[in-house]
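Fold it.
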Amino acid sequence: MSPNDVAVLIQNSVKMTLLISGPILGVGMAVGLVIALFQAITQIQEMTLTFVPKIFAVFITILLLASWMIIVMVDYTHNLIISIPELVRGG
């Protein structure tokens, strides 16, 4: 396995991580921004007001996207396992 192969594997794993976590983090960030604007407008500074809606939004997002995330992860893992003999032989 060459250093180039290792770099490609690391690059693909980072892309996969961002692809899987991106929608969840995006929803959490969007809900946090809306809550922050609401708090700034109403001057309500309750700490639980920031966490509870974000937890529910992230949970709902995970429920809605779980099947897609599993399919993407299984496809990536399948392709990675299939490529092991080629990587071990050196390409």
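Residues 3-89 form one domain.
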